[in-house]
Amino acid sequence: MTEEKKVLRRKELAKWLKETILRLGPTFIKLGQQFSTRVDILAQEYVDQLSELQDQVPPFPSDVAVAIVEEELGAPVSDIFDRFDYEPIAAASLGQVHRAKLKGQEVVVKVQRPGLKDLFDIDLKNLRVSLFLLLKCFSKCPFLPPFSHSRS
């Protein structure tokens, strides 16, 4: 395989990895963001794709964001704000930001993604189980140094 084909293959795999991470949700997006800074262990194609997780996460539906704001504040956004922009100006792994006007002053409203705690609980449980299984498998590898682990 030529070097050009290897680079193209890495780009394809890196894009697939980023898209898969986006589908897996906030916990994995955070992990991808961390790895996006690791040019010492990842090929540049992966760093480039994972770097997009820093500032190019798709928003969740605006009607969901409005419902969250209204539930948290206990009133319709039209009763609270002079103006509330339904289109977010930015989205990230944990939430998104909407422009608004409150008592004549321009403000931004940060809205947390729905169901984050439940998602994190499930993801962390799955990661814990996966790590336990990996440690169990690797503990049987004769070429790796021994290590200890505890389950809490």
TrEMBL record:
Residues 52-138 form the ABC1 atypical kinase-like domain. Belongs to the protein kinase superfamily. ADCK protein kinase family. The lineage of its organism: Eukaryota, Viridiplantae, Streptophyta, Embryophyta, Tracheophyta. This is ABC1 atypical kinase-like domain-containing protein. One of its GO terms (biological process) is regulation of response to reactive oxygen species. InterPro entries: ABC1_dom, Kinase-like_dom_sf, UbiB_kinase. GO terms for cellular component: membrane. It comes from the Eukaryota. It holds the Pfam family ABC1. It comes from Punica granatum (Pomegranate).
